[in-house]
Design brief:
Blueprint lengths: L8 H19 L3 E5 L5 H7 L8 E6 L3 H8 L3 H6 L5 H15 L3 E7 L6 H5 L22 E8 L3 E8 L6 H24 L1
Parallel strand pairs: 1-2, 1-3
Antiparallel strand pairs: 3-4, 4-5
Helix pairs in contact: 1-7
Length: 194
């Protein structure tokens, strides 16, 4: 690899996941996830690492608002007023995952992945006009908008609002969200050491 080149995503994901799991194991702490946008990909990145069962307890895929409310305890007021693609929802999901998964740490992801599929990109077709990037989701959010929240012991609470390129595919936005979620978790663990 030449100097200045980025590492492939899979290598970066593996490095972040390994660092998270090793740190948690050393601290005798556990982690759970609450995922909407990423649909279990954060949990998959963590459980791809051998020995992850020592710290990874559970993951909740809460794609619908009903699931966010019933399984994770996200306030209906939050879901109705600011919507599921928001800082408040991501925070509520992470806090709910701490309780539901009975863990020390939780990572939550929510967002709008977008409408462009891999097959449309390969065939150089654009989505129909009513589905193009200018169209917001049912909640009024734009393609590539992501909220991530990590919470843990000693009231550690970190959030990120990200806006990925609206011309990315759904898969690109979801993978970027997983990478960003793991990066935020690494940052949270470093914060906990201070």
């Amino acid at each position: 690899m030449k100097s200045g080149e980025q590492q492939p995503r899979s290598t970066t994901l593996q490095q972040h996941a390994t660092k998270i799991l090793q740190t948690l194991k050393l601290r005798n702490e556990t982690i759970g996830t609450a995922e909407s946008l990423t649909g279990g990909l954060v949990s998959a990145a963590l459980t791809d690492i051998p020995g992850s069962s020592a710290v990874m307890k559970a993951g909740v895929v809460a794609y619908s608002n009903e699931t966010k409310a019933h399984l994770l305890g996200v306030s209906l007021r939050v879901l109705d007023s600011v919507g599921p693609v928001s800082f408040e929802c991501a925070k509520g999901m992470a806090e709910g995952a701490l309780q539901a998964c009975k863990t020390d740490w939780a990572i939550a992801t929510t967002g709008f992945a977008g409408n462009i599929t891999e097959s449309q990109l390969e065939s150089e077709q654009s989505p129909p006009p009513q589905q193009q990037d200018s169209r917001a989701s049912a909640d009024g959010n734009q393609s590539g908008l992501v909220f991530i929240h990590v919470c843990g012991p000693r009231d550690i609470s970190l959030s990120r609002r990200l806006q990925f390129c609206s011309r990315n595919t759904r898969t690109q936005n979801r993978v970027s969200a997983v990478e960003s979620a793991l990066e935020l978790m690494v940052e949270a663990l470093e914060t906990a050491m201070i």
